[in-house]
Amino acid sequence: MKFLEGRPCFFGEHMTRLQRAIAAAGLSVQIDVRELRERAAKLFEAEGVESGVFKIIISDVDKDTAVAMFVRNGTLPPDPEPIKAIQSEVSKASKAFTSRHKSLNYMESVLELEKAKAAGYDECVFSNENDHLTECAIANLFWIKQGVLQTPKLDCGLLDGIVRGKIIGMAHQMGLSVEEGEFGVQDLLEADEAFVTSSGNGPRSISSFTDLAGNKKSYVVELLPRLRSAFLELEQEEALKSE
């Protein structure tokens, strides 16, 4: 989760998603959102950092609940460079808990991301058992095809990203057509523009995508600067008005 000037960004949305994951996992854990916010503020002060990225981890072993919180990065990343993405050979299970919720069990994504980086890429793109696109290793996936902003629907098996939701909402407000659906690799190869979203970096452009057959598509950058600017403004406003 990103924080600005000592205040978490979209904290309420992150806590709502965390509570959904706790319920889906069948854990008998009660979290105090206000207490977690106060702990976060004390953490930032103790670490001597004002902006960056931090994590909250909830565990429940033998009904003994533990909450861990730590700063992952004590500085904000610069404006991110466009990334090169490649299709992963691994298929994600659309109904799996690990595909739909953020947990510590993401070794598969880590390994595939490292494989992609070793091959000269920055990210990998997953499909599910039905060959429908899902997401990237550490980000949600968007593209623009014939003027329509498209992204895999949640039922395909992907994380309900906070930034993903914000981008969809902002696109609607801007009068853009948005389609959440079941898409294949060919849709991404036929897109005009593509980008990923994550809490740490926000929206980030994809410069090119290569599928398993070696087909490569390079993308233009047209809409993303407008979306990114609007998102960063919203992110700042939401963080600074939070209590």
Automatic annotation (TrEMBL):
<dbReference type="InterPro" id="IPR001544">
    <property type="entry name" value="Aminotrans_IV"/>
</dbReference>
<comment type="pathway">
    <text>Amino-acid biosynthesis; L-valine biosynthesis; L-valine from pyruvate: step 4/4.</text>
</comment>
<dbReference type="InterPro" id="IPR018300">
    <property type="entry name" value="Aminotrans_IV_CS"/>
</dbReference>
<keyword id="KW-0663">Pyridoxal phosphate</keyword>
<keyword id="KW-0032">Aminotransferase</keyword>
<keyword id="KW-0808">Transferase</keyword>
<dbReference type="InterPro" id="IPR036038">
    <property type="entry name" value="Aminotransferase-like"/>
</dbReference>
<dbReference type="GO" id="GO:0008652">
    <property type="term" value="P:amino acid biosynthetic process"/>
</dbReference>
<dbReference type="InterPro" id="IPR043131">
    <property type="entry name" value="BCAT-like_N"/>
</dbReference>
<protein>
    <recommendedName>
        <fullName>branched-chain-amino-acid transaminase</fullName>
        <ecNumber>2.6.1.42</ecNumber>
    </recommendedName>
</protein>
<comment type="pathway">
    <text>Amino-acid biosynthesis; L-isoleucine biosynthesis; L-isoleucine from 2-oxobutanoate: step 4/4.</text>
</comment>
<dbReference type="InterPro" id="IPR050571">
    <property type="entry name" value="Class-IV_PLP-Dep_Aminotrnsfr"/>
</dbReference>
<dbReference type="GO" id="GO:0004084">
    <property type="term" value="F:branched-chain-amino-acid transaminase activity"/>
</dbReference>
<comment type="similarity">
    <text>Belongs to the class-IV pyridoxal-phosphate-dependent aminotransferase family.</text>
</comment>
<dbReference type="Pfam" id="PF01063">
    <property type="entry name" value="Aminotran_4"/>
</dbReference>
<dbReference type="GO" id="GO:0005829">
    <property type="term" value="C:cytosol"/>
</dbReference>
<dbReference type="GO" id="GO:0046394">
    <property type="term" value="P:carboxylic acid biosynthetic process"/>
</dbReference>
<dbReference type="InterPro" id="IPR043132">
    <property type="entry name" value="BCAT-like_C"/>
</dbReference>
